[in-house]
Each structure stands twice: as structure tokens, then as C-alpha cells.
Design a protein that fits this description.
alpha+beta; about 60% helix; two-stranded antiparallel sheet; elongated; about 325 residues
């Protein structure tokens, strides 16, 4: 009888938790009675959005300078950016980038530099950096990068995760309520079988709570710190940053062609002089040895002809 009573209470507790989750989820969405502004919900009304006081970790309003003025306030958004830049002063730009990241309270997640290896002596360097910047300072960082080098491409992306975030919070509230209910039942359970059943369910609920809490922490990290993926290329000439007229483009291309020709001669001279020992060895192997073989063959042929002539002359005397 007690076993059936425990199972009945568990079932009722689960139903209540599900109802609570549904109510909590609906309470966190904007109420349909709230007036709409500019074709969207009035997200400035925190009481309507959060059904009461706004939580401590509510997303701060977006910077007015952000490029998308239609983005509603108090949303859970993840802002990321991808940049590709080129510079004539590679070392100076990389040092300035690291200093700016530290100045804004961010950190470099990864950084790698390729180029100038022994096998590619003339190769210019390329750096790939992934930085995490406080979201409210992302625009300041992007502006700073524009001043450090020639930015040739820039992509920004905003992911609105409010709905997913709210669903997770509602599910967490439901699971915590169920967890407390199970603890109360466990404190009153007398049968060993009931204790085992309750402990198994408690373990499952605790695992789900920890999983959802980890997802919330991951979201908070991505919301608080924007990810900036940067590629910096070292170049000998920067790409023109402004649109050129036909004459300007022809003049630029002609000048670049002359520079390319000069660079080609310099590269050839550097290669020839630098690799001269190798070239001499190759000449000896490819020309000297065959020439020696030919000379030996010619000398041998002459000896054979002289021997034959001497033999013929001796025969004639007889």
C-alpha cells in the first residue's frame, strides 16, 4: 500500500513540475497585451518580458553605435566577427593587436604565425588570431583594427538565443522544483525499495540540472565575450582602400608591373649568387663529366687510328 502511495505522489509531483515549467516558460515571454513598437515587441518593458524584476544576468542594452539599430533591447544575443587584414609592418601590428585586446579586458584564445621557413625563404608571414573581447567593447576593438592595418574584409554576425535561453531557465526551474519535491519524499520514505527509486530519480534530475546549468554558463560566456576571428597577412604593397578611376588603375598596375620586374631581377640575382656553389656542382656533374667522357673517347679513337696507320705502313714496307 505504501509503495503504491509513493508512486502516486511521484506521478503527481512530475505532473506539477511539468505544469510549472509551462507556466514559467510562458511568463518569460512578452505578453501579447504589451504595445508593439516599430513592428516588434516592446522589449524595454522588463516587467512584461520577465514577469517581474529582471534577472541580474539580463543582457545589457546594445551599444547605440552598433550597425543594426533595429536590434531590440534586453535580448540574449551573441555577437561574433571575422576580419581579414593586410599590413606592411607585421610585427608592429601584431603587437598592437595584443595590446588592444588586453587593454579592453579581453584575451587571446589562440594565435599562430606561418611563413619565412627555410623551404620558403621569400614567403611573407600570415597570422591567425582568435580573440575574445567583452561584447560591449567589440565596436571599439573593430574600430581600432581599422586603424592598425588595411582591413580587406569584415563580417559580423548576431545570434539571438533569447528563446533557447528562456526555455533552459524554465526547464531548470522545473527540475529544481522536482528535485526539492523528491528530497521531501525521500525524507519520509520508509521502504528500502522506495528509497532506491527516489535516489535513482534524484540522480537523474541532478544530472539534468548540471547539464542545463552548463549550457547556461556557455551561453553567458558567449554573450559576455564576443569572438573575433582575425587573419593578418604581411604584404609588400597594400590593396587600394578606395575606388580608383580607370587612369588611376592603369597607372597603379603599370607601376606594380615595373616593381614586379625589378623584384624578379633582384630575386634572380639573390638566388643565383646565394646558390652559386650548388650551381657550380651541378655544372660539373651535368657538363664536366660528360665532356671528360667525350674527350677520353676522342683520344682513344685517335690512338686506335694512329695504331692502324702504323700497322698499315709496316705492312707496306714488307
Amino acid at each position: 500500500m505504501k509503495r503504491r502511495s509513493i508512486m502516486t505522489v511521484l506521478a503527481l509531483a512530475a505532473v506539477c513540475c511539468l505544469l510549472f515549467a509551462g507556466c514559467a516558460g510562458n511568463a518569460k515571454y512578452p505578453d501579447a497585451s504589451v504595445p508593439m513598437q516599430d513592428g516588434g515587441w516592446n522589449y524595454n518593458n522588463k516587467e512584461a518580458f520577465y514577469d517581474g524584476a529582471a534577472p541580474d544576468n539580463a543582457a545589457a542594452p546594445m551599444d547605440p553605435g552598433f550597425t543594426d539599430p533595429q536590434l531590440p533591447l534586453n535580448r540574449k544575443v551573441i555577437r561574433n566577427a571575422e576580419l581579414s587584414a593586410e599590413t606592411l609592418e607585421f610585427d608592429a601590428m601584431m603587437s598592437a593587436l595584443n595590446a588592444k585586446v588586453n587593454e579592453l579586458g579581453g584575451y587571446v584564445q589562440s594565435n599562430s604565425v606561418n611563413g619565412r621557413s627555410y623551404g620558403s625563404k621569400t614567403a611573407l608571414r600570415t597570422a591567425h588570431m582568435v580573440a575574445r573581447i567583452p561584447a560591449e567593447k567589440l565596436d571599439e576593438f573593430l574600430t581600432a583594427v581599422d586603424g592598425l592595418g588595411n582591413v580587406i574584409s569584415r563580417n559580423e554576425k548576431v545570434d539571438d538565443v533569447t528563446d533557447s535561453y528562456v526555455d533552459i531557465e524554465a526547464r531548470l526551474a522545473s527540475l529544481r522544483t522536482e528535485y526539492q519535491t523528491l528530497l521531501d519524499l525521500l525524507s519520509k520514505a520508509e521502504e528500502l525499495e522506495d528509497v532506491i527509486t527516489l535516489q535513482d530519480r534524484l540522480s537523474d534530475v541532478r544530472y539534468e540540472i548540471e547539464s542545463f546549468e552548463a549550457r547556461i554558463r556557455s551561453y553567458d560566456s558567449l554573450i559576455e565575450y564576443s569572438t573575433v576571428d582575425m587573419t593578418v597577412n604581411e604584404v609588400e604593397r597594400e590593396t587600394a582602400a578606395v575606388e580608383e578611376s580607370f587612369g588611376e588603375e592603369v597607372s597603379r598596375r603599370f607601376g606594380e608591373s615595373l616593381e614586379d620586374v625589378g623584384d624578379g631581377f633582384k630575386s634572380f640575382a639573390a638566388w643565383f649568387i646565394g646558390d652559386l656553389p650548388v650551381i657550380l656542382v651541378l655544372l660539373v656533374l651535368l657538363v664536366g663529366i660528360p665532356l671528360m667522357i667525350v674527350l677520353i673517347c676522342v683520344k682513344s679513337a685517335k690512338k686506335r687510328r694512329a695504331k692502324k696507320a702504323a700497322q698499315a705502313e709496316a705492312d707496306n714496307k714488307k
